[in-house]
């Protein structure tokens, strides 16, 4: 059989690419086999001939041939040389359509994310986030010190292998102590599961609580990622109406009487996104309904520590541990990059969550979790919280004043007693549309108003964080938004 000539290999191989030359040749030959130019049994040029034709080192060609023989694309037959394997499926003989260079689209089906994606930092834009801390305020030398100590301790105690999926025992002990002393929860480390941030805690909880044919209930304005996690777990999502004191409990009771409810997702301390606190009598009535209808309450207490003069309400989990799956985060308190969240719940629930962790993640990071435990043990977290709460309070006041000056003609903003963001409820929806349509072109990004709304009747507004940027940066972003609101684009 004649050896094929004029193989279209040279244009697919270049020393300017980061992929090794032998691997480029491997891909080029597979491409020729797949498109039918190299048929099963076809002999290939010798390694000497091919290296001369392509201007490659002969060893590069030999390495590529060996790789293709090992993968089963080629076969080597002593003195006869190398040929295309004869046991490959027959290829199509017609001339294929040219394939454009670059990433290919997958041929398989997959569950795509929603059309509306979450706002993320991008390039040099200013992101007015939904309430993140300023990571630059935490002393990096303290973090380096505790990481070193955690690594040395784990190595000495032979704790560098796979560990408990519930998380580091040291950190679970410290979280349990913090929740007992500061939030009134009655628990032990057996009631704690450490997660990679509060979002992972929410996603794990929704997976655990999902039931076929069941539904999850959220407020009509809510944290979109939580609603998305419920839908990803196969649950329908029912929105509840709200007023200035939180969700309308009569809506919850009506839904419970009409269909099975598995889970209610709440942010009662500082409601996301509006920052209001859920009224105490409504909290008690919700717990009564949970016990009556057998649904779980996921209480997301995402920024409990940050308050400015006001006294915090106790978490619902402190007086209804049998009805509440309590979700919290240390990422906002210390550093977002640490990705440390937790779930507090009855022990059987924690054991079931640990199984979910073992399926998805195996375990968390022992070193990071032990380092965070040291930060809690040595009082670094409490000292940091006191320092940044003062700074964030100053930023809150300056941001609120700037919001009023820049956007007061278009929206109302309530000064929050805690948390790291303001809620701007827009009464001028045309101004809101102009802001959302033009912000990215002006270098500003934020979560769009529709990302919070779970029903067509929900209010329109923006949740803007004030803590993660110095005052001058936030003020400049608000000036841009004010110009957009007025229709001024330059």
Please explain how this structure is put together.
The protein has 490 residues and is α/β, with parallel strands linked by helices. The chain has 3 domains: 1-110, Winged helix-like DNA-binding domain superfamily/Winged helix DNA-binding domain (Arc Repressor Mutant, subunit A, Orthogonal Bundle), CATH 1.10.10; 126-134 and 383-485, Alpha-Beta Complex (Aspartate Aminotransferase, domain 1); 139-379, Aspartate Aminotransferase, domain 2, CATH 3.40.640. 39% of the residues lie in helices and 13% in strands. It contains 14 helices and 16 strands. The strands form 5 sheets. It has a 7-stranded mixed β-sheet, sandwiched between helices. A 3-stranded antiparallel β-sheet has the order 13-14-16. Helix 8 (249-258) runs parallel beside helix 9 (280-293). It is globular and about 90 Å long. Mean pLDDT is 87; it is low at 92-98 and 117-121.
The total count of helices amounts to 14
Widest β-sheet, arrangement of strands: 4-12-11-10-9-5-6
Any idea of the CATH class of the largest domain?
Answer: Alpha Beta
Q: Kindly state the mean pLDDT as a whole number? A: 87
Identify the CATH homologous superfamily of the largest domain: Type I PLP-dependent aspartate aminotransferase-like (Major domain)
Q: Low-confidence parts lasting 5 or more residues at pLDDT below 50? A: 92-98, 117-121
Total beta strands: 16
Distance between the first and last residues' Cα:
71 Å
Rough outline: globular
Radius of gyration: 29 Å
- Taken together, the total number of domains comes to 3
Corresponding CATH architecture of the largest domain? 3-Layer(aba) Sandwich
Order of helices and strands: HHHEEEHHEHEHEEEHEHEEEHHHEEHEEH
Main beta-sheet annotation: 7 strands, mixed
Strand content: 5-15%
CATH topology of the largest domain: Aspartate Aminotransferase, domain 2
What proportion of the residues is helical, as a percent range?
Answer: 25-40%
Q: Report the structural category.
A: alpha/beta
